[in-house]
Design goal:
The structure holds two protein chains of two kinds. Chain A is α+β, with helices and mostly antiparallel strands. Chain A starts with 8 loop residues before the first strand and ends in a 6-residue tail after the last strand. Chain A folds into two domains: 9-212, Cytochrome Bc1 Complex, Chain A, domain 1; 234-438, Cytochrome Bc1 Complex, Chain A, domain 1, CATH 3.30.830. Chain A has helices at 51-60, 68-76, 102-114, 120-137, 141-154, 167-172, 175-185, 201-212, 263-274, 280-287, 319-336, 340-356, 361-374, 384-390, 393-404, 417-424; strands at 9-13, 19-24, 30-37, 83-86, 91-98, 191-197, 234-240, 246-254, 295-301, 306-315, 409-415, 430-433. Chain B starts with 16 loop residues before the first strand and ends in a 5-residue tail after the last strand. In chain B, helix 9 crosses helix 15. Chain B has a six-stranded mixed beta sheet, sandwiched between helices. Chain B has a five-stranded mixed beta sheet with strand order 7-11-8-10-9, with helices on both faces. In chain B, 43% of the residues lie in helices and 17% in strands. Chain B contains 15 helices and eleven strands. The chains are: A alpha+beta, B alpha+beta. At the A-B interface, helix 2, helix 4, helix 10, strand 10 and helix 12 of A face helix 2, strand 4, strand 5, helix 4 and helix 10 of B.
Chain lengths: 439, 428
């Protein structure tokens, strides 16, 4: 099986502290641009869930030089669409542009980062829109389940709220707080520019120096998020939606930080249990019992920690059975670990997916952002197969026994509480909440 | 992988596609792209919900599920187990017009994949236990995507408004009662007719030697017997003589609106013009509806979709409104912006922006082996020629403001719209 050839990486650090990573790669004549800002929603102040996201949305709506519609027109004239996604650890601005437009597009991204307009009327409009958007999300059972998992899985940790925020917090967030968060957290010393495509590397570096060279920030703002602590109790949370015919189910257990030395074991264990179409959970829940259309299990890892998460859904009357089957499979795996055949198959499967996941400039740019954000090693891509090969059954079993073989366990179900509670109450104390409690 | 000197007007070389038709009617298309060690192997069957009839709606999709459950050489649970063990993964989708199976894998697994795919095309096992298992799975899929989903219910309702007689009026997943009604005999008859070699094409793109790959495919599929062609369901549709509207009650906190029009078939030149209309209306933040409804009008989101089909497609605009938002006001904004496109030619800069956005999207699509194979198959199924996948960029460049205006006038007439409103009050 052929491996992945990594394009040569050229790195530079600007005097402001901004890191630059450039990879020249043949392929379609578009360059992928990413600006990684270590300013994710874990830095939202208490009572301001959604502030990091609101800052990113507001910055995207115009700079001091180019107000909203002029910025939109300038970005999209090249065929690019500039978006800024926010997760718990970072805000990442990204777009793809024709190679010849790289300079102009870098200038626009630099302006968005360094001198966003943050106009009061735009901030107020975006806040209203975000709150209204959450009203739509509140009728999506899957969204409610994911939000409840974060809220009750991470508890008071900064990962315990969704990056999109909570309606009650967004309503009271002020424009002054948006401006202050930007000034403190969006800083070149905590940012990385990544460029991938058929580009001239020295010219691209010169463009980054010119466009980003003037970005400065006051000292401070280097805040690290505390490690996630392991939950030690068992509980059941039901988000009550009486009208649903199908229950959304999430199971949460202690997990790993992304940079953990056990990450590869987590990837393999997750794949055997809940990846692909041949996983144990898929076979037990979909193939053998027809309980659900899909089920996934994986270590969801971020910078400061993570959870092992199982996601599925089934008709309300089968919710208890689905949870029972899933827990039995997890317990069996924590006891026995994977078989030799499963290990071989999953190593081949994951090794085969690896080149498929790195076929485009965009995919490489995302991977390089991941390496930078989580502080992964220079062999993150090229050493992937070797790390897979080094994972043995004992490593999978030890990790699994610690994660879902212990006492910490959260069961989330979204649907009619009156019918779900009797099916789940033997699994731990049941808390019933209204959808609004997680929105 | 294509080099940086690529001509943007021809994103791949159609002359490099090796095309063969076997005596049983199966079409084989192979494109070598040697720069990256993966292969995409896609089998297109020209069958979808448009080929069904009332009573067994959803059989195309249910049958897609059946295809993963064992055949003569590879028994139950073996398809994915063997493929994953060779570094690949597989999935499938069913649309109104097509059922497509796609495998993406490390290049050295090609022989095994050809064996797996030809095995199930030749000798699928259909038994009652598998049917019952997949029926239960599909019912959960329908609950997930339609019955408990505001947008899913609205989309299903819109198709039923836009089409009175054409089979596009029923959902691809099928009505729940029909999913429960489909029998093993229905499935066996469906397999014999819809999965005949003459109703299928195999697309292979990636790190392969094209001559050896074609020899392999001919070995695997050449002996399959020819079968009679699939009898198509008639698809005549009467003229729409006025606006149609439906209101859906759903337990939600905020309203939404979906407006749709019956458009042309994919082969019409207006299909490309409507792609550009879609970009002007709702792709990107500078699009007309985003500017008017989101940046200026208080809407939460607005999107337009124009999906090409063998028979008339549906041009849709979907908007989510804030709690208490007025659907009639949102509909008026949508109709006013559509009317502006029909009344006045778009400016040069706006047209260039629309073309640039579509060009980027197309280049991204064609930038992977999977995307290329998909584009070849879609072009052949919908337009009759896989070479059309290489021509799309040039065709957008050839369209001018008058073409957009003509297409908007012809197909987006307010008197022939259908509107679905999500009313959160109805459910209280």
């Amino acid at each position: 099986m052929s491996g992945v050839v990594q394009p040569p990486l050229v790195r530079e650090r600007l005097p402001s502290g901004l890191e630059v990573v450039v990879a020249r790669r043949a392929g379609i004549p578009l360059a992928a641009i990413r600006l990684l800002l270590r300013a994710g929603s874990a830095l939202d102040p208490p009572g301001r869930a959604g502030l990091a996201s609101l800052v990113a949305l507001s910055a995207r709506r115009g700079t001091r030089r180019l107000p909203g519609e002029r910025l939109d027109a300038a970005v999209e004239a090249t065929g690019g669409e500039l978006g800024i996604g926010v997760d718990e650890d970072a805000a990442v601005a990204g777009l793809s542009v024709p190679v010849g437009e790289l300079g102009r597009s870098l200038g626009l991204v630099a302006d968005v980062a360094a001198t966003p307009g943050l106009a009061p009327a735009e901030v107020a409009r975006l806040r209203r829109r975000e709150v209204a958007g959450l009203a739509h999300d509140a009728s999506e059972p899957g969204v409610l389940a994911d939000r409840a998992l974060l809220r009750f899985g991470y508890g008071d940790h900064p990962y315990g709220h969704p990056s999109e925020g909570l309606a009650r917090d967004l309503r009271r967030t002020t424009r002054a707080e948006v401006v202050a968060f930007h000034a403190l957290r969006w800083r070149p010393s905590r940012a990385t520019v990544v460029l991938v495509g058929p580009i001239d590397v020295p010219a691209a570096l010169a463009l980054v120096r010119r466009r980003f060279g003037g970005w400065r920030a006051a000292p401070g703002g280097d805040l690290e998020v505390a490690p996630v602590s392991r939950p030690r109790d068992r509980r059941v949370v039901i988000v009550d939606r009486p009208e649903q015919g199908q229950a959304q189910i999430r199971l949460g257990f202690p997990g790993l930080p992304r940079a953990s030395a056990e990450h590869a074991a987590g990837v393999v264990a997750g794949a055997v249990l809940g990846g692909g179409f041949t996983s144990r959970l898929m076979e037990a829940i979909r193939v053998d019992r027809g309980l659900s259309y899909g089920v996934r299990g994986r270590f969801a890892s971020a910078r400061a920690g993570g959870l092992f998460v199982v996601s599925s859904f089934t008709k309300v009357e089968s919710a208890g059975e689905l949870v029972r089957v899933a827990l039995a499979e997890l317990a069996r795996f924590a006891d026995e670990g994977p078989t030799a055949e499963e290990l071989d198959r999953m190593r081949a499967y994951l090794g085969g997916l690896h080149p498929l996941s790195l076929e485009t400039h965009e995919a490489w740019a995302e991977k390089l952002v991941e390496v930078e954000l989580y502080g992964l090693g220079p062999d993150e891509v090229t050493g992937f197969r070797e790390r897979l090969a080094a994972v043995d059954a004992a490593a999978c079993r030890a990790l699994s026994a610690r994660s879902f073989g212990g006492e910490g366990r959260l069961v989330v179900a979204v649907g009619p509480a009156r019918r779900l509670a009797p099916q789940l109450e033997h699994l731990g104390p049941v808390t019933v909440v209204a959808p609004g409690a997680v929105m | 992988m294509r080099g940086p000197e690529l001509d943007p007007e021809a994103p791949f070389d159609p002359g490099a596609v090796h095309a063969v038709s076997l005596s049983n009617g199966l079409r084989l298309r192979v494109l070598a792209e040697r720069g990256w060690p993966t292969v995409s192997y896609q089998t297109f069957f020209q069958v979808g919900s448009r080929d069904e009839r009332p009573g067994i709606t959803g059989i195309s999709h249910l049958f897609e599920h059946m295809m993963f459950n064992g055949a003569a050489r590879y028994g139950p649970k073996e398809f994915d187990r063997v493929l994953e063990g060779r570094g690949g993964h597989s999935n499938a989708f069913t649309s109104t017009d097509l059922t497509v199976y796609h495998d993406d894998f490390a290049a050295d697994a090609l022989e095994v994949v050809a064996d797996l795919e030809s095995d199930r095309m030749e000798s699928l096992r259909i038994d009652d236990a598998v049917l019952e298992q997949e029926r239960a799975v599909v019912k959960e899929e329908r609950r997930l995507r339609t019955d408990d989903s505001a947008f899913g219910l609205m989309e299903e309702q819109l198709e039923a408004l836009v089409f009175l007689a054409h089979p596009y009026r029923w959902p691809v997943v099928g009505w729940m009662a029909d999913i429960e009604r489909i029998t093993r005999a229905d499935c066996e008859a469906f397999f014999r007719s819809a999965y005949a070699p003459s109703n299928a094409a195999v697309y292979l793109v990636g790190d392969v030697d094209p001559d050896r790959a074609l020899q392999l495919l001919e070995r695997r599929y050449g002996h399959l017997p020819a079968r009679p062609p699939l009898a198509r369901t008639p698809g005549d549709e009467p003229e729409q003589r006025g606006p149609r509207q439906a209101i859906i009650g759903f337990p939600a906190e905020a309203p939404a609106i979906l407006v749709g029009w019956r458009g042309p078939a994919a082969r019409s030149p207006d299909s490309l013009a409507l792609d550009l209309v879609q970009a002007c209306l709702a792709i990107g933040e500078a699009s007309r509806l985003r500017r008017r409804m989101i940046h200026g009008g208080g809407a939460v989101s607005v999107n337009a979709s124009w999906g090409w089909r063998i028979d008339p497609g549906v041009f849709m605009v979907f908007a989510e409104l804030p709690p208490g938002g007025r659907a009639d006001r949102a509909e008026r904004m949508i109709l006013e912006e559509v009317a502006r496109l029909a009344d006045r030619p778009v400016a040069g800069a706006e047209l260039r922006r629309a073309r640039a956005l579509l060009r980027s999207a197309l280049l991204h699509e064609l930038g992977t082996h999977h995307g290329l194979a998909q584009a070849l198959g879609q072009a052949e199924a919908l337009l009759g020629d896989w070479r059309e996948a290489a021509r799309a960029l040039g065709r957008y460049e050839a369209l001018g403001p008058a073409d957009l205006r003509r297409a908007a006038r012809a197909w987006l007439d307010p008197a022939r719209r259908s509107t679905v409103i999500l009313d959160p009050r109805e459910a209280r």
